[in-house]
Amino acid sequence: MRLLRILMLLMCGLFIPRTASAQAVVVSGPPVAPLPEMTGAGLCVATSVSQNPAADFPQAQSTYIAGINAFMEANRGNRVTSVLRTPLDLSNNLNDGRTLSYGDFTGAVAGCPVGGCDFGYSDAVTSFATRLRGFIAVTSDMVDRPLHFGFYADDSVSLALFDRDQTSYPVINRPLTLGFPTWRATNTVHFAQPGLYGVEVLHTNVGEHAALEMSVYDGVFTDFERAATMPPIINLATEGFVLVTPGMFHQTESGQPSFPTPTECAQCNRQFANAPGNGGCETGYRCNAAALCAPCDSSLFCGESCAPCGASTPYCVSQTEGFVCAQCQDANDCVAPDECHLPICTETGNCASTPVEDGTECTGGTCQQGECRPVDAGTPDAGEADGGEADGGAADAGPSDGGATDAGAADAGEADAGPSDGGATDAGVTDAGATDAGGPGEVDGGSNPGVDGGSTDTDGGNPTADSGVPAGDAGSLAGGSPEDPSEPESGCGCQGGPSALFPMALLALSLVVRRGRR
């Protein structure tokens, strides 16, 4: 009997899956998008019921992932979809004397039963498949680190990552195996760059116990894959693994939730990922790189038709009725027409401008009511002082060009020689008769001949009267004082003009003859 028992154990051991030789995965492709500033909204979970799990759920690694995805798309109409807003610890919490559905993390999620949070179907008889999708946020401190992703699953599980080019990186692929429904599996992932990467987790349950836990560990660990009941039993929670949380996962490249309601999401066929158009999603939505329906809110996919934006309207902006292509997102996308305006972006996404504050400096002047005007020329250059006094005013023209002082004293006084001829009688007569020939002559050679010959002082004439009157006279002629030239001249009290000069000339001639005889 002892030999028979040993033989039976050996034969059973031949059918027990061995520990897999896990091979680390290096995600070398570029991320789908940069890291968003906000925390994640959680993975999108879709669940479909199977009426024939033996046919619907593949049991070979080569067909498992493609087969489960095909089943999910074929049963799109009866899928139950929601956002997982708790750590990824799911269970139907079946305790039939065994607690295989509890997993390694018990009582880990507040508000959920001890074994974990509910699946879409949490009874012990419904067969179903679950697909979880989204973007995993790989931070800079996760780059080039040995990140061990661990799973506790009943009945099957797979994990695949996707880069920007939709290159698939299978990390875990543990299909359904009859007789060994509960598994633990870990594998190492190295990310070459930080950013968002697509993630897809597939899970099935045929019946009885259902469990799905996803955890991660950063450090030295020997990866393995074996049935949960196979020794040695390695509890992932005890080994330092921690459950992944909703904040690690996003639904869109921008980091925003895919629908206005945080608990709402939708999955699409991966063959339409990043393809033009709506990709099977509703109007205004597209199939993004994570194969989730997401708003058409980017320059490549914008508006109801999810068409790319053009050169004149390169930005996709939110409006009351959805997203539209526009000129700008904010003022930084606009250019002001000149120095006296500031650029603005209107609520409709169009560039405009507004005047700067009056008095703001601009090239060559200051801004006034949105115009650059030079400094006022009237005050420093062409004002009253400049034009009136310096160029054409009374002060400038009077003394310098044609005033009384300029023409009267300088021009007529010296030519008169009235004051300087008084010493010699001949000079006085000559001055009066020939040189002056006008009013000043009358003063020099007055009507009384006795005055000229008897007194040298008197013959010289009255200097004041002789020089003053000509000054006024010459000033009038030069343009200093606007006097009427028809008015009679004054100075000696005699009548002017040719009739008065003739007797005076005769008198002077007689005096010359008389002196010659003597």
UniProtKB/TrEMBL annotation:
Residues 373-498 are annotated as: Disordered. It comes from the Bacteria. Residues 373-382, 392-435, 454-464 have a biased composition (Low complexity). Residues 1-22 form the signal peptide. Residues 436-453 have a biased composition (Gly residues). Keywords: Signal. This is TraA.
